[in-house]
Amino acid sequence: MLDKQWRVKNSGDCNWDGHYRLRLVSGDALGAAPEQALYPARAGTEAVLRILFTAPLVAGTYRSEWQAYAPDNTPFGEPVFIEVVVSP
Question: How far apart are the first and last CA of the chain?
Fold first, then answer.
């Protein structure tokens, strides 16, 4: 199990609530659900985004990239990612 956390800042003017989502946009989900609730954060504050991943069993390099989405399905902010290298 991989516990990945990203510290991000809500630099917009909207509070993130249960309608804001984090979605897989590229790569492998690595065992995580492809859509996650975006951690609630008031405008101007920091939040920690957390996803639990499962490391693959097959050797290789795996990248999982995620993007925040507003309630109207508009992406915003910079994507976040995890890269996992599995050795043989």
Answer: 18
DSSP H/E element including 21: strand 21-27
Name the residue among 64, 58, 69 with its Cα closest to residue 80.
Answer: 64
Question: For 10-19, how does the pLDDT look when each residue is reduced to its tens digit (9 = 90+)?
Answer: 999 999 999 9
CATH code of residue 78: 2.60.40.10
Cβ distance 78 to 66 under 8 Å?
no
The whole-number pLDDT of residue 25 equals: 98
Q: How far is CA 37 from CA 10, 48, 56, 61, 68, in A?
A: 15, 12, 24, 26, 9
Q: How many domains does the chain have?
A: 1
Query: Which pair of structure tokens corresponds to residue 85?
Result: 């290298």
